[in-house]
Amino acid sequence: MKMFQFLFLFALLFSYSQALDFCVGDLKSAETPSGYPCKAAANVTVDDFVFSGLGVAGNTTNIISAAVTPAFVDQFPGLNGLGISMARLDLAPGGVIPIHTHPSANEVLLVLQGSICAGFVSSSANKVYLKTLKKGDIMIFPQGLLHFQINAKGSPAVATVSFSNPEPGLQILDFALFANDLPSELIEKSTFLDDAQVKKLKGVLGGTG
Questions:
Q1: Domain extent at residue 190
Q2: The pTM is what?
Q3: Which of 11, 25, 57, 58 could tie 80 with a disulfide, CB 3.0–4.6 Å?
């Protein structure tokens, strides 16, 4: 009897552990704060665990001369619940990833090509940590802190970034200030910028007010 109970418990624990191996996101369902519901195991395929998009250069013909190609859970459902994700950065000469934050994730940047000037600002005394990175260099950006990347030379630069969340979140400072209907007078009061500069930036980024 004891042997039967042992085998039953072992089988139960084994099946439970197998069920928790992964939770491929069912992207047809609504996302919750803890991620997507799990796709039915019978519908999971190897393609849910493979993403090929980072091998293709992004289109840098835009206002920032840069492109971000994400491999987040919405593009790569096998990441669901695993606490990781990636992206590719392409920066043309003069390209910049503007000052931004990821509210939900730490970030690790690896330079694959070219040279990138990168930095972040701590919340303690607003200390700046700034470095020009070359191929093979890695830099970390702690969760929630303002940071940026700029092409440091006249040739294209490429990097990959890894995040500690399948949905790292993103808020770009310039867009938060100038790409919406936040009244200009409030921006001027809170940033010490003059009216002409605020109106110019709103015009460039599509804001109103």
A1: 175-205
A2: 0.85
A3: 25
Which residues are part of a known binding site for oxalate? 102, 107
Which residue in this structure is represented by tokens 């593009």? 75
- Could you tell me if 163 and 183 lie in one domain? no
Domain count, the chain: 2
Residues 147-189: pLDDT tens digits?
A: 999 999 999 999 999 999 999 999 999 999 999 999 999 999 9
| Residue 188 within a domain | yes
Mean pLDDT of the chain: 91
Q: Which residues are annotated as a binding site?
A: 100, 102, 107, 147
**155 and 196 part of one domain:** no
Binding positions for Mn(2+) are 100, 102, 107, 147
Over residues 135-142, mean pLDDT: 98
Tell me the average pLDDT across 32-40.
Answer: 90
The C-alpha atoms of residue 200 and residue 129 are separated, in whole angstroms, by 30
CA atoms within 13 A on the CB side of 197: 9
- Is 36 within a domain? no
